[in-house]
Design goal:
Elements (H helix, E strand, L loop, with lengths): L5 E3 L1 H8 L4 E5 L2 E4 H16 L8 E5 L4 H13 L2 E4 L6 H10 L4 E4 L10 E3 H6 L10 E3 L3 E6 L9 E5 H15 L6 E4 L6 H13 L2 E4 L5 H9 L5 E4 L1 H10 L10 E4 L6 H9 L4 E7 L4 E5 L14 E2 L4 E6 L2 E2 L6 E6 L6 E2 L3 H7 E2 L2 E10 L5 E6 L4 E3 L2 E3 L1 H9 L4 E11 L3 E10 L4 H11 L8 E4 L13 H8 L2
Bound molecules: adenosine-5'-triphosphate (ATP) and magnesium ion (MG).
Magnesium ion binds next to loops.
Length: 481
């Protein structure tokens, strides 16, 4: 018998269980779960006047704000699938994603010129009339609630369908990993249109936990909140953590539990600096397809396993495969994952879904290995692997080595065709006051000979997408290959 599992509407239930707890705090304001629920109901009545109905797909183009939070919860109350757009996308990219997702309307902070579907700005809906409504009193765990696009680092972005169940299990998996404390509050400075930021909203209502929201990333403000003991947890990406740790000139309060680091590779030097300054960093591994992290390094291993992304969250599974079979410890292969937080597939992309998900396992396209105790080390994207004279070379390692030089601000590495070796690594760098010779010399102290780039190209900028990730496929075009 196939009984679809349901749960009471999360925020409504939270408002019933712990009405007076603070849900969100932002720029000197705060709102309890009870009030948040009331405001979301009002938002639903307002949005309903714009002919948004259960089963629709609606795109959202908003930056972190209380209005964005209201809209996200309201769409869940209405049973509407939300497509959360990255606000750094170009108009062309927005158009493409909105059409690809078949979104019926766009809810946005301000009107966007050149989009074909009807738009509802915050000024419009928040002033507008109210209609009577029918709330989803229960959520079906198998229903899709969001379509979140991948960053488009290795190809066109793909719309990842995530269900209530995916988000629920992501929140639970994280709580089982970090534990939940009575006084926990989580600083949200990453954009909520990304899965990492979005997951905090779900955690807040599922755990009954306060979120301290920052509408944009102001490193000083974030640092002050951490220092004042206002938050016990924070989610960061490498760049934000780097900025925070540069400011740190005194120990963090004991109540600060951890910085959850995700979204991409993390330089070991940064983790070491955090440890020196007494900031607990939990390195994570995950992707849009896994509704945020699927593996995390537990704190007791931060020193012993530095550089590792840890072990899968309970009850997820993670394996390394080559040609369909599992490899042994330390052997490199593709990372495959499985778990209740993992997507059922990409929207409107049967082929890509079939290629990516096989027998319930998601092939991540990332290469990595497990050590003899099962700790994961992520190497790089499979597509960017360079094979030189039979040796595997991972551009990420070379980029990290280059960027460890204080005069190299940014670096991108790709493989160039070579008669003798098949491929050789070449590097594009943003550097000041350094010659190619000096960079080669530096590389020889950091890297095995065959990994040292054969050419250094100086440049003023590197191709980065709206998620600020290096798009190496564009570098190939620069090379003319
Ligand atoms: P696309 O799938 O469109 O190419 P993307 O993979 O960059 O874009 P995201 O879902 O935003 O889109 O990013 C997930 C990816 O980020 C992972 O597949 C992995 O390559 C990288 N990543 C995440 N965590 C880590 C980590 N700890 N170390 C190295 N890489 C990581
Ligand atoms: Mg990806």
């Amino acid at each position: 018998q196939n009984m679809q599992q349901t749960m009471p509407n999360w925020l409504q239930n939270r408002a019933y269980l712990t009405p007076n707890r603070v849900a969100i705090e932002w720029s000197k304001q705060e709102i309890t779960f009870a009030t948040l629920h009331k405001q979301v109901e009002k938002t639903v009545r307002q949005l309903t006047t714009y002919r948004i109905y259960k089963g629709d797909t609606v795109a959202v183009h908003m930056t972190n704000s209380i209005e964005m939070i209201l809209v996200i919860h309201a769409l869940q109350y209405m049973g509407v699938v939300a497509v959360l757009l990255n606000t750094r996308l170009t108009i062309e990219e927005i158009k493409w994603q909105v059409e690809d997702a078949n979104a019926k309307q766009l809810i946005c902070d301000t009107y966007i010129e050149g989009i074909s579907i009807p738009q509802i700005t915050t000024a419009q809906w928040s002033m507008g009339k109210e209609a009577s409504i029918e709330l989803q009193t229960h959520y079906h765990l198998d229903d899709v609630t969001t379509i979140l696009y991948t960053s488009g680092t290795t190809g066109n972005p793909k719309g990842v369908m995530l269900t209530y169940g995916n988000h629920y299990h992501s929140a639970i998996g994280s709580a089982l990993n970090l534990g939940l404390h009575q006084d926990d509050s989580w600083l949200a400075c990453l954009p909520m249109f990304h899965v990492g930021g979005f997951s905090l909203l779900m955690k807040s209502i599922i755990y009954g936990m306060k979120i301290v929201m920052h509408e944009s990333f102001d490193v000083r403000a974030v640092y002050n909140d951490m220092m004042k003991g206002k938050v016990t947890l924070i989610s960061v990406v490498t760049k934000t953590l780097q900025e925070i740790i540069t400011l740190a000139d005194q120990p963090f309060p004991k109540t600060f539990r951890c910085a959850l680091l995700g979204g991409g590779p993390a330089p070991i030097s940064l983790i070491e600096e955090c440890l020196e300054k007494g900031v607990n960093v939990y390195q994570t591994y995950g992707m849009t397809e896994t509704a945020s992290q699927i593996a995390t390094l537990a704190p007791e291993y931060v020193l012993a396993k530095i550089g590792s992304a840890g072990k899968p969250l309970f009850p997820c599974e993670l394996q390394i495969r080559k040609d369909g079979t599992n490899v042994s410890a330390y052997e490199e292969g593709e990372i495959v994952v499985k778990g209740p937080n993992v997507t059922q597939g990409y929207y409107n992309r049967e082929e890509a879904t079939k290629e990516t998900i096989q027998d319930g396992w998601l092939y991540t396209g990332d290469i990595g290995y497990l050590d003899d105790e099962g700790f994961l080390y992520v190497l790089d994207r499979r597509k960017d692997l360079i094979i030189s004279g039979g040796e595997n070379i991972y551009p990420a390692q070379i980029e990290a080595a280059l960027m460890s030089h204080p005069q190299i601000m940014d670096a991108g590495v790709i493989g160039m065709e070579d008669d003798q070796w098949g491929q050789v690594p070449v590097a594009f760098v943003i550097a000041s006051g350094l010659s190619a010779e000096e960079i080669f010399d530096y590389c020889y102290t950091k890297l095995a000979r065959y990994k040292v780039p054969k050419h250094i190209y100086f440049t003023d900028s590197l191709p980065r997408n709206a998620s600020n990730k290096l798009v190496r496929r564009n570098l190939y075009e620069w090379l003319g290959e």
